[in-house]
Amino acid sequence: MTLDMAANMGLIAKECFSNAVRVTDRFHVQKLALEALQEIRIKYRWQVIDIENDAIEKAKSTKTKFEPKILSNGDTIKQLLARSRYILYKNKSKWTENQTERARFLFELYPDIEKAYQLCQDLRNVFENTTDKIYGLGKLARWHEKVAQAEFKSFNTISRSIQNHYQTILNYFDNRSTNASAESFNAKIKAIRSQFRGVKNIEFFLFRLTKIYA
Questions:
Q1: How far apart are the C-alpha atoms of 137 and 168, rounded to whole Å?
Q2: Domain spans in the chain, listed from the N-terminal domain onward
């Protein structure tokens, strides 16, 4: 059974399917790391907004015109941090030319974001390039060491969560099982429900689903 890291789901699986091998879905693990990365980006963005607001107020008091620093790609620092959101979800190999340039500025100005981005990519590589549970255990241990050295509070929290679910995470390497198909199906159901602005007749709704997707 492929699950997320929710305690209630793990308990249900343990009680109802006691002989099943439980697997923590790799995409939920990676999602936690990506959220930690975005948290660091957002923290810097708020700092830049505060600095810019202070500069605007100072310019008003001195009756001068405020002009934010503009990078060679046309972004201000605030825009750079805002527009880098989706770049950080991607692997470098999938960046466009403009995204590569934006990432270069971002990493030069904020080395912590680059370090956190690399931690996310290292975790992804563990899942993508490992086929043996023993090697997976060793690679995850080395990843934990990198997290400890980086001293990011949010990543330390994720590291502890992974350690608490070590066994089920390592079970992924047996058959590389994910619940991607179930998540995709769930997204389709939500899309249909949203299209019709809710469901009144549940039986008819389930009937439609069976006709469309059975």
A1: 12
A2: 2-175, 180-213
Q: What is the DSSP string of 113-137?
A: HHHHHHHHHHHHHHHHS---HHHHH
Say if residues 125 and 31 touch (Cβ distance below 8 Å). no
In the DSSP assignment, the letter for residue 94 is: G
User: pLDDT tens for residues 127-151?
Assistant: 999 888 999 999 999 999 999 999 9
Instruction: Answer for the pair 26, 120: CB distance below 8 angstroms, yes or no.
Output: no
Is pLDDT of 4 > 90?
no
Joined tokens for residue 131:
């086929």
**Per the structure block, which two tokens stand in for 4?**
């997320």
- Name the residue among 45, 109, 37, 100 with its Cα closest to residue 71: 109
Whether residue 117 has pLDDT greater than 80: yes
pLDDT value of position 126:
93
Task: Classify residue 159 as exposed, middle or buried by CB count within 10 Å of its CB (0-12, 13-18, 19+).
Answer: buried
Q: Which residues contact 75 (CB under 8 A, 6 or more apart)?
A: 83, 102, 105
**Gap between the Cα atoms of 176 and 132, Å rounded:** 10
Q: Residue 29's closest CA among 103, 136, 127?
A: 127
